[in-house]
Design a protein that fits this description.
With 299 residues, this protein is an alpha+beta fold. It is built from nine helices and 13 strands.
Length: 299
Amino acid sequence: STPHTLTDNEGHLVTVLAGRPADPSWHNVVSNVNTSMVHARVTGEENFFYEKHRRGKFLAVAVGISYGGGQPKPGNLLLPPTKRKIVHELLNNSDIKWISGFQSSTYLPFYFPKVYEDYATNLFPLYEHSPNLQPNFPNISIYPTCTFNFGPYTTTFEHTDSANVAYGLCAITALGQFNPKKGGHLILFDLKLVIKFPPGSTILIPSSVLRHGNTPIIGEGSGSHRMSFTQYCAGGLFRWVNYGFQTARSLESKPRGKWLKKAIDGKLADRTVSALGLFSTMDSLAKDRQAVFGRSFKY
């Protein structure tokens, strides 16, 4: 389907309704992922918990590299052996790899080349410094973390993902079996938009700053179900790199450390301007792609 873009009042691209690739095999890819995630949920159900978390009440498992919440340093999220086996099978699923690559390698660099470059500038040095870190999809996706939202009725409350990179793009692919005309819509509260979000479609949003959520699906209990697969990046990873691969406290404990941290952080107004500058306008997009990748994209 044809992608659609949302821009701010200055013309910066802030959201992409990517749809799905024009590939006849995509339907089979999505169908296979649906089957795999339902199988994972059913076979591992006794190890999962239908807990009401801040995003909703559905099964969700995050996996990958993160930093925050009291972690002394970046690391791979820890999972119990039962969950780890289930997730490992999903990460090695060729169709899930395809979706992860579609999210990361197609639309992120195509519409957000400078954001993509910023991810690479921070993450590649991190992996070189800490070779023990294991990306979910090496050489396929630049995102360090993903979440499998198993459902069976994945409906999120209004929320922001405040721990993510403030200017980062969260890639979301809707999955499952439901009527997208009657439910499963993406709500962007700040933009006052309700967007039809069919299974197999992908949307990229700055989830750290845009309040978002989903409408329930119609037909719960009659075979309808909704799941999703998301990829994102924790902002703490970038801070760790910028502070010289150490915590803020460690940096401040060094001679002139407090001054150096203040210089690295800069002023909020300056950080805001810098972050906004990573978002291309339609007029600058071709030039930005050329500057980042050294060639023009032809999609």
